[in-house]
Every structure is written in C-alpha cells, then in structure tokens.
C-alpha cells in the first residue's frame, strides 16, 4: 500500500525537551540492531513474537534462574551481555527494574521498556520509586513504567508479550497509548489500519507524549501520530511538539479518556496523570489542529484516513446505494457531519436518467435500484456522471454478505467497488465505501480496496463523522499550513483588585466601561442635589470581591440624598458582613439601559493549560445556561468571533424574534481588550471576570469587572 502524499510546510519548529543523546537512544529503540530481554513469563511471549514476525537482529536473554527461554540460552547477568543493546525489555519487578536501569545506563544501552507497575500510580511510596527510576535512567529512552511494551511493524523489533496481527506495509500510523490494554485492542483491530509503531507509554516517567511526537515527526515510516491519552503532563511542550508534527505534514489524532468525572478519577489512579478539564483540552486541540475522536472506532477510522486516504477538497458529497433506506441514513449522517449533498444538474439528471431503469429517480443520494446490483458496466458511467458534478468526493453505502451466505455472494459487491474505483479515477475525485454494519467488510476485501484506492469505512455513522473531521482538518491545514506558535501563557497567584481600579486598568487596554467616579463619603455629600439621571453606587475595597452579597451595591439613585443614605447603609452592612472592612471609597456610575444581551468575559490561570479566556452568556444566565467557550491565550479576532457565534445564546445577539442585531465588532474588540490585558500581565495575573458585558446594537459596556493577581 502506498500512503497518500500530504505535502508538509517547509518551515521547522524547535523540538521538545529531548536531549540529543536521548533522541538518539529513542531512535535506537525503534530501529534496534540487538534486543535484550530480562525476566521470565513476559519474555517468553516477546521471544515468540520476535521469531514469528521475523526479527533479523541479535537477541540476548538474561535470567539467572533458567538455562534457556524459548530456545534462547540465558545469560546470568547484564554484565555478561556482549554488546550495549539498542533495546531492552525489563519484565521484572519495580525494585529490580531500578537496579537494572543503573547497570544498563553504565553499559550504554539505548532504549528500555519498563514493564513493572508500582511507581507513581501508587501514591507517595510509588512516587519515591518513580524518582529513583528517573535518576537511574540517565540519557536512556525509557518507556513506562507500568506499560505493556512496543510493537514495531517497521523492522519487527517488537517487545510485546502477547500476540498481534502481522502487517506487511512497514509504514503507517504510530500510536502512543497510556493504556497497555487499549494498545492491545488497537493491535487486534479489524479495520485495515496501517501501523508503523504501537507504543504503550504507561506512566511517562521519562518519555512523555511530547517526546514521542517530536521524534516520530521525523520518522519516514510514520504517516500520522495517534494518541490514546488520559492527560498531558506538560501542555507547552505538548503543543510545541504538535506544531512540529504539523510542520512535518504528520496529522495528530487524539482519543482521550477521563472526560467524565468518574473517568477522570479512574485516569488519575491509573497513571497519576492530570485528566479532566474537557473544554480546555478541546480548545488546545482546536488551536493545534489536532483531530479528536470520541470513540476507539472513530480513532481507528481517522488513523486510516490520515494514513491511506486521498485528500478531500470540500464538504460537498455524492452518495449512492441500491436502497432508499441506506440513502436516507447516508443523507442524515452526512448532513449531521456538516456535508451538503448538491442535487445533480439538469444535464447530469438527463445523462443518469438515460442509464437507469424507468422507475428510478435521479437524486443525491442516488438510489441506483436493486435491479442494477453488481452491474459494473452500467454502474461505472452512472457513478462517473455523479462525480463529475459540483461535488468533492463520493461514497457508496454497501455491506458485504456474511461469509456463510456462500462463496460467490460477494462477487456483486466487488463488481460495484470496481465501478466506484473506475468512477473515482475518471473524475479525479476521492471515493469511499461505507458499510452500515461496522463488521461487514471482510479483511481480504478491505485490503484489496485500500490497494486500489477505495478507502473502506466501517459503520456509516462513524464514516460520516470521521470524514467530516478529516475534511475540516484538511481545510484548516490549507488555510494555515503552519499553526502559529502561540503557546499557553503561564501566570502566578493572587490578590483581589477592586472594581474601580480593575475597570481603569482594563479601559486602558480598550474595554468600554461606564463614565464613573471614585469618591469618598465626604465627596458624596458635596454632589449636586439632582444628579441628572439614575446612578449606581458600589463599595470599593480590595478585600470585597463580591459586593452584592455584602450589601455593597445600590441601584437607581437620582439625588444626593439617595446617594449619601445608600453609602451610610452600605458602611453598616459591609462592616457587619466583615468587621475587618470599613468602607472609605465608593464608585458612582450612571445606570445602563436594558441591553439586547449580557455576556461574560473571563480569563483564568489553569495550572496545566496556562491562561484560559472564557466567553459566554453573562448575568444570571452564567450558571443557568452554562453557555461558554474557552480559548487559550493568546487569541485571534477570528477565534473570538467563532467562539461567539458558537454560543447557544448567540441568537440573542442575532436578531432573536425580531429584536435588533448586535454588531459583532464591538464585542470582539472588548474581548480582545481583556485578552490584551491578560497577555500584558501574564506573569502576575490569576483571574479576570467581566460580568456582565452589556451588549447593545452598536456598542458594548462592561458594568462590572474583577481582577485577581499575585
């Protein structure tokens, strides 16, 4: 099989934190000239795989208690091994693993698979072992601990205890999985996914996702990089390595567990990783143009598309089958995935109608009727005509008969696949075959289809969804061949800045705020009798971030007497709320008219993701609707506008029920002002909260603001 040529941008990005020595040792681990296996039961399985899959390098086994394992004589110690092994499999307990790592580092070994558990996943006792393992590793490329091993489809130098299906391509997707068992599941898939490497990463004590991605981006055997992850240990380094993979033309695809509260708890106990924070992960992956899969089948299908499928240029699909039911499902799922199905033009309709039975109708999706089942000669021109229109790709919906139906039952399917292939070749459009049932394309048929350039997709719902994600990935890559190297901003801890000062700081960066005045109680008494409008009065004190709960806000004040009485009442209420506070300053602002909508703009420092900007429905809707979009700083105007239009409450800004529309530009500028302040003060900022930002047809105004800084 020849993988598609996805052209890569020519510019490069600096690598992750891999030292030159460890990078070289990781290369030795993935292309070993000699393999050393230490242990007993796990070594037996690994030796069977090395023999079965034809590993041609040198093999050494160390076990002081046995004379031989699997036909290989056993050496009694690492000291007896005659070479500095490129790759080592340690199938021994945790403490023995640490001792062996010391010896292997002195011997000059390259990479090591540390199978043992009992490290950081076990709390403080395990954490101490983990620190010892890191210290013993030196510059070796250590995978794990608490991992299953490595399947090497490139040179068969696998260190993997259980059986796995053979692949002959030697080129394909490299997958790094925190879960060893999930890696086993992936190795047993029945979806014709080409692999280069499967790596069970375990606890990532030494090598992390960022290191694997950084190294694999340069490997010519790798077509795409898949990650089954529970958490990321270093977000900036992870982001940098993904940008580097993008620069090298290697799509990164993620399937993440730990998205639910219980799942996050399980992930933490499993690998001691930081999991959860779904929206932040989504924002990170969106920025990096990393494709996400919600399920393992979607993950496998995306890996297949990224490794073996031609590129799709747009979201216009042509679909065809011999069943109205199948076409109805295809229309639904393709539409849900963001595709359109343009109707054939009058010229196409006439040409196709002349080829179909009289009772057939020309449409998209096209029902070519059961009467043409398996008729390659008639279906080839029909499919070709459908694909020559204003569409970007074609998909045929078809299930292969069960093998027990009969040996010849699949021949009509093969004929229709040949027709699809010929039509794709004639039109120059990518073609796919999607089965309704995920299990209904036999392995020989999958392999043959992939060889001739018809990509098999298994399960119509997943097929439409992954085609949509793949197409949008390609569009974003074409628009931004190299994502901007904008990594998360980090900040530090925390004191509250009162609303008056917070508004002044944010206004200096462009945030519209009311024309307010900061006054003492004595200065309030000097105001005119008639204020000339309605005003709001607020207590100002850095120790009082939530003024309303303390009785520190009064509305609809029109006279000096109103203001003074409100201020005196506030002093009593606030002091009763917190005896440490005696209010001395007040913020007086004009009341704002009822807006079209209220928004919240926030920025918050997350310990893993750095500064995160949040845009959402504000006011009382914050908790009621939970309608917000996070973005990682720094951010662009286009990203802000996309987040706004993606809110569930966007209809309130867009002329809901005949109300005026709000101009988006002032909202975007207000968000960018908050972002600009956050970027300028990233070393000291902990949190910003602008709520609400009142939105009017042509302008916005922030009526409340809070800053928390270190």
Give the helix level as a range of percent: 25-40%
CATH architecture of the largest domain: 3-Layer(aba) Sandwich
Radius of gyration: 31 Å
Give average pLDDT, whole number: 88
Provide a count of the helices.
22
Strand tally: 29
Query: What percentage of the residues does DSSP assign to strands (E)?
Result: 15-25%
Count of individual domains = 4
- Distance from N terminus to C terminus (CA atoms, Å) equals 57 Å
GO molecular function, one term: ATP binding
Organism: Paracoccus aminophilus JCM 7686
GO biological process, one term: tricarboxylic acid cycle
Protein name: Acyl-CoA synthetase
Describe this structure in words.
Helix 14 links the parallel strand 16 and strand 17. Helix 3 packs parallel to helix 4 (about 125-135), helix 10 crosses helix 16 and helix 11 (about 325-335) packs parallel to helix 16. The protein has about 700 residues and is α/β, with parallel strands linked by helices. The strands form 5 sheets. It has a 7-stranded mixed beta sheet, with helices on both faces. Strands 19, 24, 25, 26, 27, 28 and 29 form a 7-stranded antiparallel beta sheet that branches. The chain has 22 helices and 29 strands.
């Amino acid at each position: 099989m020849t993988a598609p040529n996805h052209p890569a941008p020519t510019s490069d990005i600096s690598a992750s934190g891999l030292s030159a020595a460890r990078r070289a040792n990781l290369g030795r681990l993935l292309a070993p000239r000699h393999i050393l296996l230490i242990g007993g039961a796990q070594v037996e399985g690994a030796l069977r795989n090395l023999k079965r899959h034809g590993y041609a390098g040198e093999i050494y086994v160390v076990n002081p208690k046995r004379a031989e394992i699997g036909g290989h004589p056993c050496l009694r110690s690492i000291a007896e091994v005659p070479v500095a092994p490129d790759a080592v499999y340690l199938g021994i307990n945790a403490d023995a693993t640490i001792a062996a790592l010391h010896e292997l580092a002195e011997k000059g070994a390259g990479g090591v698979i540390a199978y043992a558990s009992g490290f950081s996943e076990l709390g403080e006792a395990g954490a101490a072992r983990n620190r010892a393992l890191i210290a013993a590793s030196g510059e070796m490329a250590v995978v794990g601990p608490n991992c299953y091993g490595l399947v090497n489809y490139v040179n068969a130098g696998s260190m993997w205890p259980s059986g796995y299906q053979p692949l002959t391509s030697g080129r394909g997707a490299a997958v790094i999985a925190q879960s060893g068992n999930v890696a086993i599941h992936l190795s047993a898939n029945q979806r014709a996914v080409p692999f280069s490497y499967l790596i069970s990463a375990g606890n990532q004590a030494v090598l992390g996702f960022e290191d694997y991605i950084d190294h694999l981006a340069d490997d010519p055997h790798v077509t795409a990089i898949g990650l089954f992850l529970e958490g990321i240990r270093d977000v900036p380094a992870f982001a940098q390595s993904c940008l580097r993979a993008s620069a090298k033309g290697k799509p990164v695809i993620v399937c993440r567990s730990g998205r639910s509260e219980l799942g996050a708890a399980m992930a933490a106990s499993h690998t001691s990783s930081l999991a959860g924070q779904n929206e932040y992960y989504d924002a990170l992956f969106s920025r990096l143009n990393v494709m996400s899969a919600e399920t393992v089948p979607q993950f496998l299908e995306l890996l297949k598309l990224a490794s073996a499928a031609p590129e799709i240029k747009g979201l216009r699909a042509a679909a065809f089958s011999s069943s109205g039911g199948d076409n109805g499902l295809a229309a639904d799922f393709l539409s849900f995935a963001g595709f359109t199905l343009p109707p054939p033009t009058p010229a196409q309709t006439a040409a196709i109608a002349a080829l179909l039975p009289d009772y057939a109708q020309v449409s998209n999706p096209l029902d070519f009727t059961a009467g043409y089942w398996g008729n390659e000669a008639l279906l080839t021109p029909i499919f070709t005509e459908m694909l020559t229109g204003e569409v970007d790709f074609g998909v045929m919906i078809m299930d292969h008969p069960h093998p027990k139906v009969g040996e010849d039952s699949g021949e009509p399917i093969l004929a229709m696949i040949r027709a699809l292939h010929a039509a794709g070749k004639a039109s120059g459009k990518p073609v796919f075959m999607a089965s309704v049932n995920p299990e209904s394309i036999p392995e020989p048929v999958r392999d043959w289809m992939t060889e001739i350039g018809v990509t098999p997709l298994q399960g119509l719902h997943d097929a439409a969804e992954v085609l949509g994600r793949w197409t949008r990935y390609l569009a974003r890559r074409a628009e931004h061949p190299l994502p901007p190297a904008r990594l998360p901003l980090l900040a530090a801890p925390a004191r509250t800045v009162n609303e008056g000062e917070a508004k002044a700081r944010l206004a200096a960066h462009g945030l519209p705020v009311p024309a307010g005045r900061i006054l003492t109680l004595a200065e309030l008494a000097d105001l005119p009798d008639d204020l000339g409008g309605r005003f709001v009065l607020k207590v100002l004190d850095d120790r009082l971030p939530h003024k309303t709960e303390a009785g520190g806000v009064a509305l609809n004040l029109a006279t000096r007497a109103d203001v003074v009485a409100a201020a005196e009442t506030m002093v009593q209420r606030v002091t009763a709320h917190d005896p440490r506070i005696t209010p001395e300053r007040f913020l007086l602002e004009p009341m704002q008219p009822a807006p079209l909508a209220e928004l919240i703009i926030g920025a918050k420092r997350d310990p893993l993701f750095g500064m995160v900007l949040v845009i959402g429905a504000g006011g009382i809707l914050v908790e009621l609707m939970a309608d917000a979009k996070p973005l990682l700083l720094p951010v662009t105007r286009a990203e802000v506008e996309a987040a706004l239009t993606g809110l569930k409450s966007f209809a309130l800004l867009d002329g809901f029920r005949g109300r005026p529309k709000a101009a988006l530009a002032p909202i975007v500028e207000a968000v960018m002002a908050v972002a600009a302040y956050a970027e300028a003060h990233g070393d000291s900022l902990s949190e910003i909260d602008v709520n609400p930002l009142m939105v009017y047809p042509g302008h916005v105004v922030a009526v409340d603001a809070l800053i928390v800084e270190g």
